[in-house]
Amino acid sequence: MSEFIRCDRTVAWSALAGHFEAHGRDLDLREAFGRDPGRFASFAVEAPEVFADLSKNRWDLATRKLLVELARECRLEMRRDALLAGEPINVTEGRAVLHTALRAPRGQGPFSDEVHAVLDAMLAYAERVRDVARSGIRDIVNIGIGGSDLGPQMAVAALESHVHPQLRFHFVSNVDGHDLAPVLARVEPRSTLFIIASKTFTTQETMANAQVARAWFLQGWGAGGEAAIARHFAGTTTNVDAAAAFGIDTTFGFWDWVGGRYSLWSAIGLPIAIAIGAQAFRELLAGAHAMDRHFAQAPLERNLPALLGLLDVWYRNFHGFTSRSVAPYHQGLRRLPAYLQQLEMESNGKRVDLEGAVLPYATSPVVWGEPGTNGQHAYFQMLHQGTDVIPVEFIAVKRPSHHHADLHAKLLANCLAQGQALMQGKTEAQALGESAPTASKSLDKSVIAKHRTFPGNRPSTTFVLDQLTPRSLGALIALYEHRVFTSGALWGINSFDQWGVELGKALCNDLLPRLASGDAQGLDGSTAGLLARLRA
Ligand code: F6P
User: Fold this and answer.
1) What are the pLDDT digits (tens) for 297-351?
2) Does the domain made of 99-283 have the CATH classification 3.40.640.10?
3) Residues with catalytic annotation?
4) Which residue's CA is minimally distant from atom 6 of ligand 1?
């Protein structure tokens, strides 16, 4: 931990504070483009599978230079190398953080033999399941939560056009029976494979759902059901013994150096492998590996994950922006915002530094979003005219996997238009000069114009993917992982633990028997009142 240098204790931090006052707070994107015809090119970054336009962000070349200096002062490159080398950078749990090893080619990267042995076995199993004539499997039910759900669910949706046409995928996460019951109502024991996905194999929700699924299966199967469990239940976990105790023979393991929210590349990716097949799963890994190489090798000035993480620090700590909206203009990426919420907010939603000191600055922004164009007809109003400035991240995909070229052109035009509108805005004079046929005739035109004014100068980033493929999806996800690492490293926090989820779990264990008994002793007044209400 001797190399740990917190961002606010650097020379660059003070320089950035001065720069923000002089040129940052009031930077106007419209003027910046007017001054510099080369701005788009200056802020365009090419990374594997992902092109990024960072020019519509409220920074200039001097800001970028100072942010890169900040990264160097905080020894970002050294910390990145420590991550990739498998040093125990998750200090509060004494663990390495090696999701990158899961996508390193055979013979490269730490633990290569173990990683590739499990990968080969898992992919061979996936291919057997995909042979539906032989396996008889038609429905895959993944039971898991958090990282054991969001990654596979997001990726299977994203890669829909690559998914085996005779297989249906169901993802059950919530301990709410409204999640599991409708799935069980739609599937048959003899044609269903349950995957019990849990790094720890102790998570309350997953274990409870798995028990219900098991009982349903045994009841539906009839005689011989116990023996059939071996063919219809598989486990993906680091806790192979617990899976065996549950009665699962087919288990694909992984290791404590794979964080839950970084685990889709491990055995937790089994539903993805069954959905898209072994070859495509290897492509997903290869795309992520290409982004790992970019992060490891590209100079910081052209290193896309590093630049995004630096921009996040600039926005959070200098501009004071509290959230970031993600707008994927691809329906397949509809679960990406939810996936990114766990990735970023569980990683960087921390309030003490690596030495336990309470931080004097803000960390993770709120990450949220919906696919475009749906979001445009819901919350984009606030993005354009609300009182908060919320940077937006657009993801555009050049070539669709359908043949409706007219729909795709409209989708892309909408995506470009939103970034343009956020930046350009509309002055009161422009609004006054326009006709507004739906506006009230009884209000003064100047008042209507005020309502129809857009401040503009609202920042956005646009990523362009050529096509949404296993490879480009892998690269995109790895890009986000390394971006989160970068901001976390600068903030001097541990991005790889999640102690904040523990307290609620413990209190739930205390409350569960009280719901049955009604015992409210020692509870606060509100919880006691609600308990009584729920029991009445
Ligand atoms: O409670 C939070 C968490 O530990 C996440 O970090 C994790 O992805 C999720 O729960 C599920 O954990 P597991 O895979 O061990 O069931």
Assistant:
1) 999 999 999 999 999 999 999 999 999 999 999 999 999 999 999 999 999 999 9
2) no
3) 346, 377, 505
4) 260
